[in-house]
Design a protein that fits this description.
alpha+beta; 477 residues; seven-stranded mixed beta sheet; 13-stranded mixed beta sheet; 3 domains
Length: 477
C-alpha cells in the first residue's frame, strides 16, 4: 500500500486511520501490528502537516513579484487617465482626525510628450497647481499666483526635471508634482528616468494579505523607506494597496507620518499628522487627441512668469516685506539682554557687522538655523561680526529653558512685545538680518534651508571684504 494512497485516503475518509491500523501490513514489510499502526499514523500525520504547510507558503504572494509586475505594467502603458486624491489630517489629543488638506488632481498622460493635470484643493499648505504639455510648450498654473510658461519642453520627464517648472536639486524633485504622494508615486512607476529601480532601495517589503474595497480585491503591502526630512534621516513605513488581477491598478497609499508634526498656535503642542493617497477612475485602453492637452486661455490680468524662481521671488516679496529692506539704513533700537545688560544698535556703528536672528522656542526651523549661524561665525573667526539672537514674543524663562535644553551659547535679546520684530517687518521666523558697519541692511533671509549655511558664509565673506571707508561711513559712495 503506497504512502501517497494513504495520504489521499486520510484526507478524504473518516476513520481512515482505524482502517490502516486493522489492515495486515505484510505488504509494506512490517511485522508488529502495534508498531505498524504507530509508524503509519505518525508518517501520515507528519506528511500531511508538511504538505499543508507547503501549500500555505505557496499561496502567499511574494511582495517583490507584485512590485515587479506593478512596474512592468505601468512602464508599458502608452496612455492613461486617473484621478488622484490626497488628504492630510491632524490627529488631536483625543485621537480624532481633522482634515487640513484635500487635494484632487485629474491626470491624463499620452507618451511621450503630452500631459494634463487639473487640480482642485482646499487647504493651507499645498498648492493646487495645474499643468499642460503639448507641442513642446509647457504651462504650469499655480493657484492664486499665475502661470509659468516655458518652451522647448519635449517630454513629460523633461517637464518634471526642468528648473523653470519647479524642479530643484536640493530636494531632487519637483515641488509641484511631488507634493501629492499619489502623483509622485505614479510618476516613479510610469517613467524609468524618474523612478529607475525605485523598489530596490526599499529597506523592507512585507505582504500583509488581501483586502476588499467594495467589490474589488487588493493586495496590501508594507514598504519601508529611508528618507530625509528637514535634513535628518527618517525611516518610514508606507502601506500600498494594489488591485489583484491582470491589471494591477494602484488603489491606495498610506505613509506612516505619525512622527511628523504640523505647526500649532503659539503655546499649543504640535499636532501629529496622518496622510492618505487614493487613485480612482482608471482608464488605460485609449489614446487622446491634442485638444485634450491644450492649456485654457486665461484673462489678461493673470500674471505670466518665465520660471518658478521668478514666481517665488515675487511671492516672497509680497508675503515677506522684510526682503525689501535690503539697501536701506537700519533704524536704531535698544533691547534688554537675557543676562540683564542692554544692546543698542547705534553703539556698534563703524565697529561691527551685526547679525540679527529672530527666533522663538516653538519654531522648529529655528533649532536648525541657530546652530548653523553659530557654526558659520566660528569658522569665520572674525571678531568684528556679532550675532544677536532676538527672541520674539516670549519670556526670559522660556528663552533660558531653550538655551539649557539645546546647549547653545548665544547672546539673546528679549523682544517681548515684538517692537523690534515689527521694525524689521518680521512676518515669519526664523528671519536673519545682516547689518553692515555703516548701518546698511546688507542681507535679509526668511526661513531655513540646507544651503543656508553655505550661502551665509559666502555672503558674509563678501560683506567683510568691502572697503573699510564704504563699510564704516554711510556717507561714502
Amino acid at each position: 500500500m503506497a504512502i501517497g494512497s494513504s495520504l489521499k485516503r486520510l484526507a478524504v475518509a473518516r476513520g481512515a486511520v482505524e482502517v490502516y491500523c486493522g489492515t495486515p501490513f505484510a505488504t509494506i514489510g512490517f511485522v508488529s501490528p502495534v508498531m505498524n499502526c504507530r509508524i503509519v499514523l505518525h508518517t501520515l500525520l507528519t506528511s500531511s502537516a508538511l504538505l499543508l504547510a507547503s501549500l500555505g507558503q505557496a499561496a502567499k504572494p511574494d511582495p517583490q513579484a507584485i512590485l515587479d509586475e506593478l512596474t512592468t505594467f505601468y512602464r508599458g502603458l502608452e496612455a492613461l487617465s486617473v484621478t488622484t486624491e490626497l488628504s492630510i489630517a491632524t490627529i488631536g489629543p483625543d485621537g480624532k482626525l481633522k482634515v487640513v488638506e484635500d487635494l484632487m488632481q485629474e491626470v491624463m498622460i499620452d507618451r511621450p510628450s503630452r500631459m494634463k493635470i487639473v487640480s482642485q484643493g482646499d487647504g493651507k499648505f499645498l498648492s493646487a497647481s495645474s499643468a499642460f504639455l503639448s507641442g513642446g510648450t509647457a504651462h504650469l498654473g499655480v493657484q492664486n499666483q499665475g502661470i509659468i510658461a516655458a518652451d522647448g519642453v519635449t517630454t513629460i520627464t523633461s517637464f518634471y526635471q526642468d528648473p523653470r517648472l519647479g524642479y530643484t536639486e536640493e530636494m531632487s524633485g519637483n515641488v509641484f508634482f511631488d507634493q501629492n504622494i499619489a502623483l509622485s508615486f505614479l510618476n516613479k512607476l510610469l517613467f524609468e528616468e524618474l523612478g529607475k529601480d525605485w523598489d530596490k532601495d526599499l529597506e523592507k517589503k512585507v505582504y500583509l494579505g488581501e483586502e476588499t474595497f467594495g467589490t474589488i480585491v487588493t493586495h496590501r503591502l508594507r514598504l519601508t523607506t529611508a528618507t530625509m526630512q528637514m535634513g535628518r534621516p527618517m525611516v518610514m513605513d508606507m502601506d500600498l494597496w494594489v488591485l489583484k488581477g491582470e491589471q494591477p491598478y494602484l488603489i491606495k497609499i498610506q505613509p506612516d507620518i505619525s512622527n511628523l508634526t504640523a505647526p500649532a498656535s503659539q503655546g499649543d503642542p504640535p499636532m501629529k499628522l496622518a496622510m492618505v493617497g487614493l487613485w480612482k477612475h482608471w482608464e488605460t485602453d485609449k489614446r487622446y487627441d491634442d485638444s485634450q492637452f491644450t492649456a485654457p486661455k486665461l484673462g489678461k490680468d493673470v500674471k505670466t512668469y518665465p520660471s518658478f524662481e521668478a514666481m517665488v521671488q515675487t511671492q516672497m516679496a509680497q508675503e515677506n516685506p522684510a526682503l525689501g529692506l535690503t539697501g536701506s539704513q537700519a533704524e536704531d533700537f535698544e533691547l534688554l539682554l537675557l543676562d540683564g545688560s542692554t544692546f543698542k544698535l547705534s553703539e556698534h556703528r563703524g565697529k561691527h557687522t551685526v547679525i540679527l536672528d529672530f527666533w522663538a522656542s516653538w519654531c522648529e526651523p529655528c533649532r536648525d538655523s541657530l546652530p548653523s549661524m553659530i557654526k558659520v561665525l566660528r569658522e569665520l573667526d572674525d571678531a568684528s561680526v556679532l550675532l544677536l539672537a532676538v527672541n520674539a514674543g516670549e519670556t526670559k524663562g522660556v528663552a533660558q529653558h531653550f538655551l539649557d535644553e539645546t546647549g547653545l551659547k548665544l547672546t539673546v535679546a528679549m523682544d517681548p512685545n515684538q517692537d523690534v520684530a515689527d521694525q524689521f517687518k518680521v512676518k515669519s521666523i526664523p528671519q536673519t538680518v545682516v547689518i553692515g558697519k555703516n548701518g546698511e541692511i546688507m542681507q535679509v533671509h526668511v526661513g531655513y534651508s540646507q544651503d543656508m549655511e553655505r550661502d551665509f558664509m559666502f555672503e558674509l565673506k563678501a560683506i567683510l571684504a568691502e572697503k573699510p571707508d564704504k563699510a564704516g561711513d554711510p556717507k561714502q559712495e
